[in-house]
Amino acid sequence: MEALEQMYSYSWNGEVKSYLDQVDLSSYQHMWIGRFGGSILHGAHKNENACLILTGPDWELAVIMGAQHTVESAAFIADSLMLRQRKIIETLDEDTSSAMKKIDSFLMSMFNSVRFRSTAAKVNGNSSCLISVRKAGYLYWLSIGDNALFLLPPSEAHTSSVQMNQQHRSGWIGADNTFDQEVPAYNMGIIPLSKGRNSILLTTSGLQRFPVSPYKNPSRVQRAFTKSESVPRFLHRLLTNAQSAGAVESITLIGWEIHI
User: Fold this and answer.
1) Cβ–Cβ contacts within 10 Å for residue 43, how many?
2) Residue 68, CA distances (Å) to 54, 61, 200, 246 in order
3) Quick one: pLDDT at residue 7?
4) pTM, two decimal places
5) Is pLDDT above 70 for 5?
6) Does some domain include residue 3?
7) N or C end of the chain: which has fewer CB within 10 A?
8) CB-based contacts of 214-218 (< 8 A; 24+ apart in sequence)
């Protein structure tokens, strides 16, 4: 019961509120969600993105999804995780070594289960899905599809790669489910965080696809972050640039800072 009392959760999808022609920036505890539903003038008429946040005493789980055709597949993934939130909390409240091993096993078991795949086959459309977990001084991710995860150092002087995951436009969860294939298409990883400030960003692929988007190159994302004074200003900068460019595809961001 104590773990549940320390847990915080938030879930949203574009059917609840679309944010068409609107940039929204909202805080949830120490995390920020940025949303832009797309420009109506340039053809946007619905938002098929979704996101989910769970937090505990020394961890965060963030999920970002971009669906096709309808938001149904993204909502299905979020609902499936929320139904299992007690198990997620119990897992992530364990010691760091055990938690990081078990969360990967938990997610693989869920996505590969016959029940999950049979239900997914009945939804309308498909969704990319990026799951990121920060526990103590480590960052884990499971990436299915074309969303992006960035770990942003405080200065451009750092030359290491800022994008953590590999993006694959062929991997989906839904009616066309990658886990129904002989060899599923996904990538996962885990890295230690640096001492000091660590800034984490999850974004749907719309950030990289709007006309003349400067954010196709991860170094430009890093540059925009360096010029911003805080995570919320950074997220707002990304979204207003997309709005000014007439982005049609919806964009959803989750960002936060952790000091190690």
Assistant:
1) 10
2) 24, 23, 26, 20
3) 67
4) 0.94
5) no
6) no
7) N
8) 214/241, 218/150, 218/161, 218/162, 218/163
